[in-house]
Amino acid sequence: xxxxxxxxxxxxxxxxxxxxxxxxxxxxxxxxxxxxxxxxxxxxxxxxxxxxxxxxxxxxxxxxxxxxxxxxxxxxxxxxxxxxxxxxxxxxxxxxxxxxxxxxxxxxxxxxxxxxxxxxxxxxxxxxxxxxxxxxxxxxxxxxxxxxxxxxxxxxxxxxxxxxxxxxxxxxxxxxxxxxxxxxxxxxxxxxxxx
Amino acid sequence: xxxxxxxxxxxxxxxxxxxxxxxxxxxxxxxxxxxxxxxxxxxxxxxxxxxxxxxxxxxxxxxxxxxxxxxxxxxxxxxxxxxxxxxxxxxxxxxxxxxxxxxxxxxxxxxxxxxxxxxxxxxxxxxxxxxxxxxxxxxxxxxxxxxxxxxxxxxxxxxxxxxxxxxxxxxxxxxxxxxxxxxxxxxxxxxxxxx
DNA sequence: CATTTAACATACAGGCTGTATGTATGCAAT
DNA sequence: ATTGCATACATACAGCCTGTATGTTAAATG
Lengths: 195, 195
Description:
Two copies of one chain form a homodimer.
Chain A: H1 9-31, H2 38-45, H3 49-55, H4 59-82, H5 87-101, H6 107-127, H7 131-144, H8 151-173, H9 178-193
Chain A binds a DNA duplex through residues 2, 5-6, 8-9, 12-13, 16, 37-39, 47-51, 53-55, 57-59.
């Protein structure tokens, strides 16, 4: 007599992974990566460590899954807000969408603190589908279009601006007024174009 | 018959701490914080774990000492290059000095990756004496002087630009051409002033 | 010179990670 | 429907690491 029987293995896997990812997300956000042990994670997820290590090769792999979900949500938000207009307008819309998407609780912690620290910026770039970076780069290129600015310079600019975007997202998530930072980013971008 | 006798306890402490900090610095840069155990550190420093835990309350405290040394070196470089002129010129000189000071091997790793991740941005701000931030803020305020830009806006701008500075330092330490990034930062700053 | 104190060295306890092994259930083919 | 295999776990174990407690030696102090 079993207490629980699953319809299919696929559903079972799906459910277990989801529980683990949700529990891990919550605990990582609360207590950071290093200080959150797998025993605590599986307790909250109501499975055993055996299940965890069956589905994920190690603790970092579980974090990767958490981060990937988070990054995809942000990318979708940017894309949905940026699509369907000029690259320049996409940049404007996408900028606001990014900073706002980053406001769901724990998101800046996961994507801008824990992720880069534990997985490295390299792997983070691979996980990120690059929607933010692409929108930014396309917008800048379009704005510079008739200008003779070198493509390399634009990429450098995009790199620097994306760092500023991240800082803006963090500041807002820490309590700063979003409008102020969105406007500041807009001025920064427009200023960089004027030449 | 002892193999080694120290002149004074002060010198002995000084030497031991220096060895530990140097060994830790090297290993943290190579292998990151979490993957570098205290046994490896004391082995390289040629002391025992007892010495480590006598001088530092825990592993994070040792990292703090490493970071503090590093931050002070950067601050001194900025100050020495920025002092003695107008705030605006100080900003220009300080900008280049910052990015160049960050090029000593391992420095971006320690100050911009490991430090914030392990100690948190809060504690990092306390360790940092804020030379970079002050130079930046003073420069911007001076540039805006006759303008009616609100002080709050300038602080936001400084926050965003400092994130860009950090990214520039990382990019250059990863192999990018310093001149390109220094120029890009200059343009970004000047653009933000034009209004 | 006796005593205290600082600077270690050594030994130990607890916790955590990853692996190895055991078990039950779904699933596929006959 | 039964047999055989693969999947999805659960449990047990080994190794490492951190921080603490305890012991020892040399320096400082009166």
